[in-house]
Specification:
The structure is a homotetramer of 314-residue chains. With 314 residues, the first copy, chain A, is an alpha+beta fold. Chain A is built from 13 helices and nine strands. In chain A, β6 and β7 form a beta hairpin.
Chain lengths: 314, 314, 314, 314
C-alpha cells in the first residue's frame, strides 16, 4: 500500500472541493489532480498544483517575438517551432508541483536536477515509514558485461532468491534497529521508559538506501522537459525511469501540444556530429562508407549505425 | 496612457471568464487578476497567474518538519517561525507571474535578479512603442553630496526646466530617427518605398534608456521576497521602488500571513554585527558608550545610532 | 581606441608579475592573460582569471564514473564521450573570468544567460565613457525580407550615409546633454558652479543603447559552451557573435581537447527529429522521398534539405 | 584511515609540482593545497583549486561602484562595507573547489545547496569503499526533549554500547551482503564464477546511510559564505558542522579580510525584527519592558532575551 487510509481520505476531500478562478485551467489535468499514480512497490507521483497551459507558452513567445504571430491557427506550429529551435524561455512560463514518494537512492539521482524547488520529508524531525523498495523479480538484473552503468540479464534461481532475501532481511532488520535506537515507534510514542533514545538525526544513518522518502517537487516546464529527456530515456536507471514515465503522462494531459513537440524533437530526436553529418551526406550521395574510411572511432561508428537503423553494418 | 484600447479590451475579456478548478484559489488576488496597476508615467504591473497560497507554505513545511505541527490554529505561527529563521524552501512552493511595462534602465537593474523566468519584448523582432519615461518634477533630484548612489534636493527653476526639455526632446528625436532608419511605422508599414530600411536589430541602438519595454516575469515567493527586500527598500532607486511597492500590494492580497511576516522580519528588520550587539548589551547594562571606545568606525557607529533611533548621540 | 593609456599600463604591469602556484596551469592561456582582444569599434574581451584545464574535466569525470577509466591515453576519448553524451557536470569544474567592454544593447542580450556571475559598471555611481558603437559600413544591413529577426542586404549610398549620420549625431548629442544635465565632466569635476546637477541615476536615462558599458563576467565551462553554442552561431546577431568568437579563441587556448569536442558535437552538430530521422533512414534505403509524402511541413522539409546539403531538392 | 596509501602518494606528487602563473595567487592557501584535513572518522576536506583573492573582490566592486574608491588603504573597509550591506556580487568573483569524503546522510543535507557544481562518486559505476561513519561516544546524543531537531544529553552505559554495536554490525553486515550480491570485491574482481552478480545500480540500495561517498564540490565565495552561515552555525547537525568548520579554516587562509567580515557581520550577527528593535529602543530609553507588554509571543520573547544576553529575564 502506497497511501495510508488517512492520505486517501485527505485526497478525496481535496478532490471534492471546487473553486472559481480566472486563471488558465486545464480540465484534463484537473481530472487527475491530487490523485496518486502508483510507482514501484510503495511509491507514487501525484500532481498537486500547476500554472499555465499551452496557450501560456504562446502568450510568452508572442511578447518576445512580437506582432505578426497572432493567427490562432498557428499555435501548434509556433510551439513546435520553439521546441525545434530550443527557444526555451516561453516553456518556463508554465509551472507544476508534484508530491512524490520514492526510494532514497532514487531521490539521490533526482536531486541532481538543481533548478527545482524541493521540500523533502526530514528524518531529523520525523520518523520514516517502515517501507523499502524491493525490486520485482523481472527487474533483478545482473551487471551488464558491456556497459559499466547498465543492466544485463535477469538473475534467476538460487541467486535471485538469495538477493531478494538479503535485500528484504537487511532493510527490515536495520529499520527495526532504527526504531529500537530511537526508542520510539512510528507515532513518536516512547517504547522503553528506562532509555533516553538516540537523536533522530543520528538514528536515521542506520537506514538502507532503499527506504522510502517523500517530497514536494516544483519546477517549470522547460526544466521538467530537461529532466524527462534524461530520465525517461532508455539509458536511465529503471527505478527513476518509471517515475519519469508517470510524470510524462501528466504532461500529456496538461500541455498536449508541447508534450507532442517534446516527443518529436527531443525524446525521439538524435544529434549528429559534424563528422557524422558529413558521412550521412556522402551515403545519401550513393557512396559506400565503412568505419575504416569514416574517420570515426569504432565506438562512434557503432553509435551512428545504431542511429541509422543499420546495426548490421557495424 | 499606459494601455492601448486593444489591451484594455483584452483584459476585460479575460476578466470576464471563469473556470472551475480544484487548485488552491485566493479570492482577493482573483479580484485583481489581469488588472493593470499604473506605475510611473507609462508603465504598469499586473498579475497574470499564480500558484499556491499561505496554506501551500504550511503544507510544504509540514512535509519537511513532519508530524506534530498539525494544529490549524498554528498556521500563522509556523509561517512567522519559517520567515524568522530563514527556512526559505517552503516559500518557494508559491509562484506568481507578472506582466510589467517599464523603462529600459529599470529593466537593466531588475534583470540582475537571476532566479526568475523572463520573456521580454524583443526589439530585434518588433518595433518599440513611442513612449519614454520623463520624471515628474518632484522626482527630478540632484546628485546627493553625501551618498554616491543617491539623490539630493529636487532641482528647481531654470535648471529643472532645461533637464525636462532635454530628456523629452532627445528621447523624441531619437525615436523619430529610429522610425526613419527602419523605414516603417509602429504597425510595421513601410514608409518610403524607395528605401530598404535598417534592420530592426540595428535600429534599436538609437533609442534612449528611458524607452519603455515590457516582459512577463515569473518567480517563486521566496525569490520575490528577496527582490522586494532590495527593491522596496528606501535605498533602492525611486523608479524601481515604485514597481516593488505595486507588487507588494499584490503579495498582501495573495499571501497575507507571509506578507505580514515579511514586513516584520525582513523589511522592517535590522541586522546587528557581533560588535554592535556587544555594544547594545553594554548600553542595556547601563554603561555609557561613545564612538571612541566602541571599537566601531565612525561610519558604523553612525549606522548603529541611526538603527537605535539615537541620531543625536553620533 | 578601446583602452585608455592608464588601462594599457595596468595590463602591462599585471602581465609582468609572475607567481608560483601548485594549481593546474595552462601556458597557452597564460600567454593571453589580461591582454585585450579588440571587438567592434571600442569594445574588447580579455581573460582575467581561470581555474582548471582539460585534465580537471577528466579528474571530475573519473570521480563520477570511477575506477577503470584511468589510462592516460584515453583522456581525449573520455572528454569527447562526455561531450557527445551531454554529461555536462565535469565541464562545470573549469571556470573562467572575462573583462568585457560592450554596447548596452549587446549587454542586454548577453545578461539573459543567467548562470554567470556579473559585476557591471554602474551608471548610478559613475559617469559612462563618451563612446558609442557605430556599425562599420559593411555591417549596416537592411531588415531581412524573409526572416523577422535577421539582416538582409547591406545599405548603400545616401540611405547608408544618412543612417550613419543619425546614429553618430544622436549618440553624441545625447551624451553631451547627459554631461550637461549631470553638470560634471567624465572625471567628476563640477562644470557650472551655479547649478546642482542631476542625479547620475537619472541622467543615464538620456544615453542611447549603443553607449558602451563594461563588466566582469565569470562562468563555468559548461555554461560558457552553452553561451557559445547560441552566440557563436550563425543565427546570432553579428554584434554579439564577434564577442563569442573572440571568447572561443581563448577557450581553444585554455582547453583544446574540450574545445575540439565542442566544435564537433555541438557547434557543427545537427539534431534530427524522430520524423526527420525516419526520412533519412528511408532515403538511405534508396527510397525517393519528397516533401509531399514526408509528413513534414514545408518549413521543416526546407530545414531538413538544408541540413542534408540538398538545398535544390526543396 | 581516511586516505589510501595510493591517495597519499598522489597528493604528495601533486604538491611537489610548481608552475609559474600570472594569476592572483595566495601563498597561505597554496601551503594547504591538496592536503586532506581529516573530518569525522573516515572523512576529509581538501582544497584542490581556487580562483581569486581579497583583491579580486575589490576589483569587481570597483568596476561596479566606479572611480573614487581607489585608495589601497581602503580595501579592508570596502570589503567590510560590501559584507555589511549585502552587496553580494563582488564575492561571486572568487571560486574554490573542494574534494570531500563524507557520509551519505551528510551528503543529502549538503546537496540541498543548489548553486554549486558537483561531481559525486557514482555507485552505479563503481563499488563504494568499506567505510561507514560511527559516532564517537561523546557525540552519541539523545533526542532533545525541547527541540524537535536537536540533540540532548549524551547516551551512556548499556544504551550507548548497544547503539554503537547496532550501528557497527548493521553497516558491516549490509556492506558484506552488498559485496556478496554484486559478486565482486572492491577492486572489481569476480568472486564466485558460478554467479552473475547483481547490477551495481541495484546492489547499492542495500548500503546504509552512514556509508561514505566522495565528491568534487565547487562554488563561489558568496554561495560558500551562505553555506557556511547555515552549516557552521550552532543549529546545524554536528556531522555537517565539522565539515563547515574545516572549510572555514581554508577560507581564512584564502581571503582573510572577507573571512573576518563574514565572522563579524554574518556568523556573529543577529537580526532584530521591527517589533524587537522597538523594544530595544524602549529598553535603552530606560523603560522596563516584560514579555506581557512586549507584544511578542513567549517564544519570540525568549529568543530576544537570549540575543540580548538576558536569559534570566525570560
Amino acid at each position: 500500500m502506497t497511501l495510508t487510509a488517512e492520505q486517501t481520505q485527505e485526497i478525496e476531500a481535496a478532490r471534492g472541493v471546487r473553486h472559481e478562478t480566472r486563471r488558465p485551467t486545464v480540465p484534463a489535468l484537473e481530472d487527475m489532480l491530487f490523485t496518486a499514480t502508483p510507482v514501484l512497490d510503495h511509491g507514487f507521483v501525484r500532481v498537486v498544483d500547476y500554472m499555465g497551459d499551452d496557450a501560456a507558452i504562446v502568450q510568452a513567445a508572442r511578447v518576445s517575438y512580437g506582432r505578426g504571430t497572432r493567427a490562432v491557427s498557428e499555435d501548434r506550429g509556433l510551439i513546435r517551432y520553439l521546441m525545434r529551435h530550443r527557444h526555451s524561455t516561453p516553456f518556463e512560463m508554465c509551472e507544476i508541483k508534484y508530491h512524490v514518494k520514492l526510494p532514497i537512492f532514487v531521490a539521490r539521482q533526482w536531486i541532481r536536477h538543481r533548478t527545482a524547488n524541493v521540500n523533502e520529508y526530514s528524518a531529523r524531525y520525523s520518523i520514516l515509514d517502515r517501507e523499502f523498495y524491493i525490486p520485482s523479480p523481472d527487474q533483478l538484473s545482473a551487471q551488464s558485461a558491456v556497459n559499466r552503468q547498465g543492466r544485463g540479464a535477469v538473475l534467476e534461481g538460487a541467486e535471485a532468491a538469495r538477493v531478494l532475501d538479503l535485500l528484504r532481511e537487511d532493510a527490515t532488520r536495520n529499520y527495526d534497529h532504527y526504531v529500537e535506537m530511537l526508542n520510539e515507534d512510528e507515532q513518536g510514542q516512547k517504547l522503553d521508559p528506562g532509555r533516553q533514545g538516540l537523536a533522530r538525526e543520528l538514528g536515521r544513518m542506520n537506514l538502507t538506501l532503499n527506504a522510502y522518502t517523500q517530497w514536494y517537487w516544483k519546477t517549470d516546464l522547460h526544466n521538467l522537459f530537461h529532466f524527462l529527456s534524461l530520465r525517461a530515456d532508455a539509458h536511465a536507471q529503471y527505478e527513476i525511469r518509471v517515475y519519469a514515465e508517470a510524470m510524462m503522462a501528466s504532461v500529456e494531459a496538461w500541455v498536449p501540444i508541447a508534450a507532442g513537440a517534446f516527443r518529436d524533437y527531443r525524446l525521439g530526436a538524435v544529434t549528429l556530429s559534424a563528422q557524422m553529418l558529413g558521412l550521412v551526406q556522402r551515403m545519401l550521395a550513393g557512396e559506400a562508407v565503412g568505419q575504416a574510411e569514416s574517420g570515426l572511432s569504432k565506438r562512434e561508428w557503432r553509435e551512428l549505425m545504431q542511429v541509422l537503423g543499420r546495426g548490421d553494418d557495424a
